[in-house]
Amino acid sequence: MPNESTTSRPTTSASASDTDRAKQLRAALADRLRADGTITSPAVEAAFRVVAREDLLPVEVPLETAYAADHTVETKHDQRGVPISSVSAARTQARMLEQAQLQPGMTVLEIGSGGLNAALIAEIIGPHGRVVSVDIDPEVTELAEALLRVTGYTDRVTVQQADAWHGVPGQGPFDATIVTASTPDIAPTWLNQLTPDGVLVLPLVMNGLTRTIGFRRTGDHLTSTTTEPASHLLPMRGAGQHIEQLLFLPDPNGNNITLRFDCAPPGDIGLLDGVLATARSQLWAGVTVPDPNLLADLQLWFAWHLPGYCQLSADTGTELAAEHGTWYPHAAVCGSAFTHLVVHTTSDGAGLELGARAYGTDSYLAAQAMIEQVQAWDHHGRHTTPTLSYWPTDSNHTQIPAGTPTLDKTHGVLTIHWPHN
């Protein structure tokens, strides 16, 4: 497939019926996001009620899609048809804007252009604020600038083509920086261009798991104020690109289960040869959840506490793929085995019991390792909100309390703390 880029909507006036329908959908979207708690502040709500999403999206996007709460709009693809640029779903935009704690008069950096999100930011920070929107792709910045010009936002939004990993020359400092693509680390330049009490919001990859975190400066490091599940966000391109490691495990029929790692797979991966042809073990943790959405919290616990943690996907023809609704893509490699999370409905139908299924000669040990972490999460991490801190390389790491779980990053160290129940 050739490269595809968006085209702006015609500048001719829309029909009266389309305009009225857009207004109705805009109000309904704001009402929905306010009612379900995604939008919590009057400023973000007002922005969603004012900005005409249909004027800042590709011409072919239907109004119903433009105002769908959870629909990501892909705006450009590479030659293989893989999306490389998109406009985040309305719910994702609203969450990140709330995390940024924007105030009137702020100077804000948006990394990842498109036009729509920059317009929302401009409405929140008002006429005395300023937005700098940066993207590595000149086609994306050209279109974003054109859309913002047509919709009247260029007096408050500056669009610039650059690889933001290296900073934005001649701009800043910024009161808030919002990164709209997933990133494996925090670029030193983002901190250098952030004000002493500035906020950084970004989808951060942590051991293969991505969470959108709102950080605020605390002396020489950053401390999280909010942590949200991240969904349908494209990876960053350029110098900050995250390249995951893939391990393909064929089943006896030639279909694959794929394990996805943040870095190199642990141990001797040769021990996993033929693992799907071995007998499997399955254990249950005696831990139940009433709502599958709570598994997002468990996934965060796994990423920090379960050795060999990875993400799992299955080809259509595999036995696993046929078992709809009974497994989740949270997995781990343990010696000559791998394990993944499974669930089944409790006898009273009130919830889901959590378990582990494992394959390989060490299958029982692998399943037991996951079960132990499910139980540890149930006792120590469930119903709590962890605090994450990012310690740049040049910060004082002696301040990190002994025994704190850590993840090493290229430009710093990430820590996490779960408060006691």
TrEMBL record:
Its EC number is 2.1.1.77. InterPro entries: Methyltran_FxLD, PCMT, SAM-dependent_MTases_sf. One of its GO terms (molecular function) is methyltransferase activity. Keywords: Cytoplasm, Methyltransferase, S-adenosyl-L-methionine, Transferase. Residues 1-17 have a biased composition (Low complexity). Its main location: cytoplasm. This is Protein-L-isoaspartate O-methyltransferase. It comes from Phytohabitans maris.
